[in-house]
Amino acid sequence: MPQLGLLPRRAWAALLSQLLRPPCASCTRAVRCHSQGEEPLQVAEAVLTSQLKAHQEKPNFIIRTPKGTRDLSPQQMVVREKILDLVVSCFKRHGAKGMDTPAFELKEMLTEKYGEDSGLMYDLKDQGGELLSLRYDLTVPFARYLAMNKVKKMKRYHVGKVWRRESPTIVQGRYREFCQCDFDIAGQFDPMIPDAECLKIMCEILNGLQLGDFLIKVNDRRIVDGMFAVCGVPESKFRTICSSIDKLDKMAWKDVRHEMVAKKGLAPEVADRIGDYVRCHGGESLVKQMFQDPRLSQNKQALEGLGDLKLLFEYLTLFGIAKKISFDLSLARGLDYYTGVIYEAVLLHTPTQAGEEPLSVGSVAAGGRYDGLVGMFDPKGHKVPCVGLSIGVERIFNIVEQRMKTFGEKVRTTETQVLVATPHKNFLHERLKLIAELWDAGIKAEMLYKNNPKLLTQLHYCESTGIPLVVIVGEQELKEGVVKIRSVASREEVAIKRENLVAEIQKRLSES
Amino acid sequence: MPQLGLLPRRAWAALLSQLLRPPCASCTRAVRCHSQGEEPLQVAEAVLTSQLKAHQEKPNFIIRTPKGTRDLSPQQMVVREKILDLVVSCFKRHGAKGMDTPAFELKEMLTEKYGEDSGLMYDLKDQGGELLSLRYDLTVPFARYLAMNKVKKMKRYHVGKVWRRESPTIVQGRYREFCQCDFDIAGQFDPMIPDAECLKIMCEILNGLQLGDFLIKVNDRRIVDGMFAVCGVPESKFRTICSSIDKLDKMAWKDVRHEMVAKKGLAPEVADRIGDYVRCHGGESLVKQMFQDPRLSQNKQALEGLGDLKLLFEYLTLFGIAKKISFDLSLARGLDYYTGVIYEAVLLHTPTQAGEEPLSVGSVAAGGRYDGLVGMFDPKGHKVPCVGLSIGVERIFNIVEQRMKTFGEKVRTTETQVLVATPHKNFLHERLKLIAELWDAGIKAEMLYKNNPKLLTQLHYCESTGIPLVVIVGEQELKEGVVKIRSVASREEVAIKRENLVAEIQKRLSES
């Protein structure tokens, strides 16, 4: 299993060595705590506000980012980019092409696609033009793209930000701006082959990130709907009850049941029948068992779904990942557009006691089949079947960042290889000529932006930022037509003929 | 000069070979035509609209992206990513750290930063929370970040989308959503050293992209203001007259003069005095000449600006790029926040006749010094001097894409190395096992999503998408415990023991 992707081998190894350590108690607690309640952003805001209040110069002027958003510092960017590189290199390994769509769409393109979540869309102000909304996911823009360009077949990935006006008090620890990495296969193919590949990709990415043990829950929208039908849910309530079931990973059954009965008017006995089903989860054998279920086996839709799941498990076994997959009747997925197989990957913590249920720390990847979405855009309703997945980079990032903080690890935020320095005054011109030569040769080089910096300051800069080499030019060197190369780690210095400098540095960098 | 950056050597070489060809007449015409008028998007929209009208099923439902925005197809993404890789690798060569900010900011963070351009900001709808606007550039969010985190010193790059409600009928060929690549140096340093590095970076990037000859116009806001003062512009009109002068690259002098006199109430003789200055451009010698200018030399601000430009040219000469720089008194830069040196890079076409003025195809990079912006966010007004640059990826992309279209060049949009194929029926299971083995070894592999594809279809797929190797498993191979490796280019096939397959493919890929 390749875990390095496109990354510089050593940089990634350093990051992975941090991840590989077993999560200690404080780390586990921190992650749990985060997903249960604290919005780190709001804490940061509160601190900032109080800092500003202390000044009292401009008490009404609080510098901050909008609610639910955050900046990424250079340290955070390094971690983010390593995660994205690993994800994208996996998508490319599976033959996907890249593409991009605008951050906002015509509002009408997004309506009637997200069901109960539609209210969370960010609309743009009507400034005398079109009515626009920020994209809510990357799936609907992809479907719009396929329909608009009459593309019938495409395997693409898309990395981009999406925006949702989630209320932080309801859904804890979620951001309103977040990054998604999507992989989708559009086209009419033989059943379950692309679907199985999507699950293989999720496994490769989660293995590669080494976040710990994980499980992918699988179900099928047709099984969900069939289950509703045989339990006695009126068809008009299928989607809204589906939204309630989708909350089972965040809410207890009794609360979901209460929502369905008290708020959505479902008969209590119907809710209880659903309750019996959604407790079921297991492997391939549960699929076989459900084929025998006296009620479910009477429903045509459910049988179609079960048939596809049976085939899916066959392919997953060939891919060697069947043991990572759990057929889970409580998995419903909130979005309206799914029509077939649906899945969601969750990270598990190793149980402390044998026999204890693994503790889930939330979904980190999800997806499913949506065969009707492209047709909603097409004037003739021509369908293009699609299946895909989305990696929840934000949540993965939070876990990695939290672990790194816990272990007090630092990452280098620059790649500079050489500092051009001098021990003497009035050597700015020499430094400028020298550094231009290095840049022109493709060497990553910096110098201090001072006319006459102290040598010690220059050497400290290397140590604090991790620059491995110093090129030193002074009076003696200039006279002799040489420069000194100093290794920051060993403090060894050697004099090199000025004309051999670039070659010598390149040699050293290729060796290290 | 390194031109390959982080790119796969061959991929970039292919792209560059296209760029390196001299622009032919039709290409030049196409580029000119584009920058003069045609909005390719609107053409595409018109075609799409008429296509949909032909159907007449849903005449009111037109699938399109919002005005001034576009999707990037996989072909376009490949070109875009090559450009971004080259730009970012240059930024990293100069020791910059990455960072990111949200797509939108609190509206109050952006007000009073952009002068007359402020009306072009996209506001979000008030949905019962904060008042938000999409970011208009990456500079103001950077200043906000510095002030918010009390950072006094930072060298960072930022690649991201920005949004401006430009009217396509006024500013032709511009998009409302576009990508910027910014590099900035914040901190109190000795004069002109960071400023010179910014110009060096612009040269490295434009050389690396091989877009043809270019020129960087340089001026200083203090010289612009000094010029206004000695010409008799009332101080209250400095910024608005500056905005007019900024249009000189898009409008003729007589139209700019008309705007200043008729619309902005400037006295005609004042306008004419300005007119004399803005016709001046030249090298270092013009700086010396302006020191002697009877009016300008009486203005303290202008003298400060000229003194800095003198020092700047000294450093640019040491960097070996002085001949690419033109001191140009017509350069004003529209944004309010600049306080010192300003610059703008333009591409030139080789003149057809000796002595002809080079024809400019518009600005592709720009920037300047903004020493007051961070202080606008700080409650105590603490200043952090900054200088930076922004690469206009969109315009560069349009030029590259146009040339590629003209030459009919195609780029590979996937990186797949191996297709797993079979000549026989009922070999899906074997193919699935085989491909999982390749993926797990990090090999980029695809297969057709059919139970029983024809061999010819599979081979055609390789040819049309550029996959170099085919791994073939059939009845005979299965019996003998081998697989065949076929080179798509040479059509040669060899049988390899199944257990040696991964090693053999890796060997072939490393050799090619």
Automatic annotation (TrEMBL), chains A, B:
Name the residues that bind L-histidine. Answer: 137-139, 164, 180, 184, 333, 337-338
**GO MF:** ATP binding; histidine-tRNA ligase activity; identical protein binding; RNA binding
Which residue ranges does the record assign to the Aminoacyl-transfer RNA synthetases class-II family profile domain? 68-423
Q: Which GO terms describe its biological process?
A: histidyl-tRNA aminoacylation
Q: Does the keyword Aminoacyl-tRNA synthetase apply?
A: yes
Family designation: Belongs to the class-II aminoacyl-tRNA synthetase family.
Q: What is the protein name given in its UniProt record?
A: histidine--tRNA ligase
Source organism (scientific name): Callithrix jacchus
What is the gene called? HARS2
